[in-house]
Design brief:
Two copies of one chain form a homodimer. By secondary structure, chain A is α/β, with parallel strands linked by helices. Helices cover about 40% and strands about 15% of the residues of chain A. Chain A contains 16 helices and 13 strands. Chain A has helices at about 5-10, 45-60, 70-75, 90-115, 130-140, 155-170, 180-195, 230-240, 255-260, 270-285, 300-305, 330-340, 340-350, 360-375, 385-395, 455-470, and strands spanning about 25-30, 35-40, 65-70, 120-125, 145-155, 210-215, 220-225, 245-250, 295, 315, 380-385, 415-420, 425-430. In chain A, the strands form two sheets. Chain A has a six-stranded mixed β-sheet, with helices on both faces. In chain A, strands 10-9-11-8-12-13 form a six-stranded mixed β-sheet. In chain A, a hairpin with a 2-residue loop joins strand 12 (about 415-420) and strand 13 (about 425-430). The interface between A and B is large, with 38 and 35 residues. Strand 7 of chain A pairs antiparallel with strand 5 of chain B.
């Protein structure tokens, strides 16, 4: 490993270091104890939605998180679901099964946390004092982990019905019923739970740490939260909303440096890049997107891409392309020649590799966290940024691992349209009909191998093509 | 603000204002008590605050109106956030504020209520900031304390805490017993979100923050900025002296934070305490000027050198950062510092200037010129509404890296010229023998 490569990897410390702490690449710390986040609430209150979204966010910022859904344990333990009768409070046999499932799930939670997991989200109704007391005794008293309850309280029948239609009627429980029957059965299921529902109570359960979210965030109560992770979770959950909206991601138009096969720098748009800027503005205006905001980086090529779009614009330094340090403005061929060790090292571990004097993808995720937080709070947004940055943002929305992230496809002159739906995001790639170079470098079999297309002789051809376009 | 007297409203107002100004949001506090002191003759006793004292009531209501007018005037003239620090303890008063601020002026309104029923905390507040207030300059401590407690009783008669049914259209936050429980109702917008997050993370448990630069480095000796060099001989002496100081003082649950650069890590190797590395604590990135001396920069990039002197806070090194960028990347550090107890932060000149500006409420003009000499521990102890500062210079010599604001932008101080630096290097060699 060259001395320069060594410098790019954070030095090992003589400190007490067990596991890496939250914010990626930035901090090394002795770890806090593992956390269990337990959901609370009647069915169709958004518990699974919150669980999955929270888990996606925590994993993205580098906290190893997993969701344990009690419904899945129940489906696994019993024969095919027949009707809401299973959930009657006086159905002793079913109750025994359900309690056993809860115990099994908790065991899995603790096993996972002992084996390196940092946060486990226990997604269940947990709607009685007794159940929560049992969880506390097991997780805190016996295992010594931290426990935080998140309760979703909702009495708006419209929201509840919308939830049921979006995610319940299509659940495995109802595959043999039609929509109408499923809806009614589920509403009766909720009634059974309501009989014994005991919302989190700060007098009765004064020793518990918890958060109550009312009507998707209109009001929030936080009780005895402690520690950095719980603080971040509270902040995140206070900022998300479920109002429908669309996020558009796009790279800048093709730039002069793209044509030369160079990375980084701050160049202008090429001729084709300017065509894309016009096409993008046309697309945006055609679709008449309500209250759209446009975000760009501070580099010229993104700003030039949006000059003709009629919408409030914001510039974010955090959206600037990854800093390639000593490799700025070089072609991949030049990097492979001049710094072969670094070039190979990057292929071996593209997510954590930090360019000397520059950044790693891991650093990018850390600096993009405020962007994600603000995106969660906003409505319709068009983000015009760069390849590495968009890969990080896309990984957040599509729940991609840190292995997949640096190899996500984000071609030039393509709008990526993200629409939140059910528990995830619908993705559409809209390629506008303007040609551009391909800057994607897939993971090579042998680290350090340079693809044909990045070699100088091949780039020259592309430049000639561009000159032809101008005439 | 909303709440009975001695519930920490002014503490929260000032702290919040300091934080918002530091992150670049132009904020000012308007304290109603000051308006009252200005409008009336010298304070005599708690009788002024009796609910049936009509004359006093009229004065107090007029003060509130005057203060609100000043608030709105300030917001119209470029202010971004105004903190109205008063008890605002009735529905009527809050309705009046809402009608004026929101309906008439079109601004956003957010109430922050501090609720506290722990008599110990209340008495501590009174002793720390009330008995020394201008109101009580002619009374002894005992009398002042009793008078203030009676003052609180008058307010209690008519106190109506924020009510989400009665005042369902208001945006507000209720903090119970200094943060044990927090209720947030209809908060909207980025600033309110940040305010809620900040107020949820602060605490009033006594603790101390120690700031220090790394020990003198090899590049310091050469007068070069940036880079990632090792400690010089004298720097290593400082590292030992620092560890000794820390161990002597037996600081409970101390945590040590450093950057990822070698010189800070080397400075703390012998300190027995859990350590954390923060990339955010790395020195300001001087871009194309990294590892150059000021003399070289003045020769090679004279325009940049002069531009930086004209506007040191916003000037960004080409391919590098500005102090303004630093503040942005240090915000998570500040947030985490607020949550922690005793912490020793070992970092760099520009970074410590930013942190110090936050704790000591320095403006962006003063920030880039704050003194943070090498081999000096800066000890910060929260007290009353601010921070007590102590500079503890450990007895090990080091170069002086401070460059004050020159009268003419672009002038290079004598001490940074090559001929003068050579002398310092010789001194170091002497030390080694």
């Amino acid at each position: 490993m060259s001395p320069e490569t060594k410098r790019s990897i954070p030095p090992p410390t003589e400190t007490i270091q067990t596991k890496p702490f939250p914010v990626r690449g930035e901090r090394a710390n002795y770890v806090n104890s593992p956390h269990v986040i337990a959901m609370v609430g009647l069915p169709a209150r958004g518990k699974t939605y919150i669980s999955k979204k929270l888990s996606r966010y925590l994993n993205w910022i580098g906290i190893n998180t997993k969701v344990f859904n009690l419904g899945e344990y129940r489906r696994h333990a019993t024969s095919a679901y027949k009707s809401h009768e299973f959930f009657r409070q006086d159905n002793k046999e079913a109750m025994a099964i359900r309690t056993q499932c809860a115990i099994d799930a908790l065991h899995d939670v603790c096993y996972w946390l002992e084996c390196g997991g940092e946060v486990a989200v226990f997604d269940a109704t947990n709607s009685t004092w007794d159940r929560r007391r049992m969880i506390h005794d097991f997780v805190v008293k016996k295992m010594g982990f931290k426990l935080f309850f998140v309760e979703s309280v909702c009495d708006d029948p419209q929201i509840i019905e919308q939830n049921i239609m979006e995610v319940k009627v299509s659940s495995p429980d109802y595959q043999n019923m039609n929509t109408e029957t499923a809806l009614n059965d589920f509403l009766l299921r909720i009634e059974h739970y309501k009989e014994k529902y005991q919302p989190l109570d700060e007098t009765q359960e004064a020793d518990l740490s918890f958060m109550k979210i009312y009507n998707t965030g209109e009001k929030v109560v936080v009780h005895k939260h402690e520690g950095h992770i719980q603080s971040r979770i509270v902040y995140y959950l206070m900022n998300i909303h479920i109002t429908p909206r669309t996020i558009y991601l796009s790279r800048h138009g093709e730039s002069e440096m793209n044509l030369e096969g160079r990375i980084g720098g701050d160049s202008d748009l090429s001729y084709r890049g300017k065509l894309y800027a016009n096409a993008l503005a046309q697309y945006i205006h055609q679709h008449d997107i309500p209250s759209l905001r446009v975000w760009t980086s501070w580099l010229k090529r993104t700003i030039q891409t949006v000059t003709t779009i009629q919408a409030p614009q914001e510039r974010w330094k955090a959206l600037n392309e990854i800093d390639a340090g000593i490799c700025e403005e070089m072609t991949y061929e030049e990097i492979a020649e001049k710094y072969p060790d670094d070039f190979a090292a990057r292929d071996q571990s593209k997510f954590t590799y930090r360019y000397p004097r520059g950044e790693s993808y891991e650093d990018l995720v850390a600096r993009l966290e405020p962007v994600i937080m603000e995106l969660e709070r906003q409505g319709n947004v068009l983000v015009v940024s760069h390849q590495a940055v968009l890969r990080c943002l896309l990984a957040y929305f599509l729940d991609k691992s840190s292995d997949e992230l640096p190899y996500l496809q984000v071609p030039l002159h393509t709008i990526i349209k993200l629409t939140p739906v059910a528990y995830g995001c619908k993705v559409e790639h809209i390629k506008l009909p303007i040609e551009a170079v391909d800057t994607h470098r897939p993971k090579p079999k042998i680290p350090g191998t340079l693809d044909e297309k990045f070699k100088r002789k091949n780039l020259a051809t592309i430049v000639k093509v561009d000159v032809k376009d101008k005439s």
